[in-house]
């Protein structure tokens, strides 16, 4: 089960760190121009905060498990990322946009949390 957790968390971490870095580094106008219309509904600091939360969550999926220091933080990070993705789903549905990527990431984050709690506890 630990191998499945590592594979899942590795893929999730990659996705969240890349997406979060883009949101944290690029200006809101650039994100909107790139097709992320949802960013127009939020203040620039809020978009940056969402990006930072995704980067920290992505790191939290890997680092505690890798170091063995407080590995319980890994499934907690997955749970927090699932909450972020549930918020993203709500925003996309409200804007009548495609919510499929957010739904997939939420489901994978929930799977990671469940698997992480089983492995760690």
Walkthrough of the structure:
- The protein has one domain.
- Helix content is 80%, strand content 0%.
- The protein has 5 helices and no strands.
- It has helices spanning 2-25, 28-33, 44-67, 73-94, 100-120.
- The longest helix is centred in the N-terminal third of the chain and has 24 residues, at 2-25.
- It starts with a helix and ends with a helix.
- Low-pLDDT segments: none
Residue fraction in strands: under 5%
Q: What count of domains describes the coordinates?
A: 1
* Proportion of helical residues: over 70%
What would the principal axes of the Cα set say about the shape?
elongated
Mean pLDDT: 96
Distance between the termini: 13 Å
Question: What is the strand tally?
Answer: 0
Helix-strand topology string: HHHHH
Cα-atom Rg, whole angstroms? Answer: 15 Å
Characterize the biggest β-sheet.
none
Find the structural class using helix and strand composition. Answer: mainly alpha
What is the overall number of helices? 5
Summarize it:
This protein is mainly α and 121 residues long.
List keywords for this structure.
mainly alpha; 121 residues
Topology overview:
Blueprint: H1 2-25, H2 28-33, H3 44-67, H4 73-94, H5 100-120
Helix pairs in contact: 1-3, 1-5, 3-4, 4-5
């Amino acid at each position: 089960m630990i191998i499945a957790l590592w594979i899942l968390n590795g893929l999730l971490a990659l996705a969240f760190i890349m997406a979060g870095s883009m949101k944290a580094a690029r200006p809101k106008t650039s994100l909107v121009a790139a097709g992320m219309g949802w960013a127009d509904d939020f203040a620039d600091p809020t978009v940056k905060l969402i990006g930072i939360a995704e980067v920290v969550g992505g790191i939290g999926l890997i680092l505690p498990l890798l170091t063995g220091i407080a590995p319980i933080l890994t499934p907690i990070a997955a749970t927090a990322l699932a909450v972020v993705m549930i918020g993203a789903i709500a925003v996309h549905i409200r804007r009548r946009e495609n919510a499929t990527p957010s739904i997939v990431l939420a489901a994978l984050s929930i799977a990671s949390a469940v698997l992480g709690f089983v492995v760690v506890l």
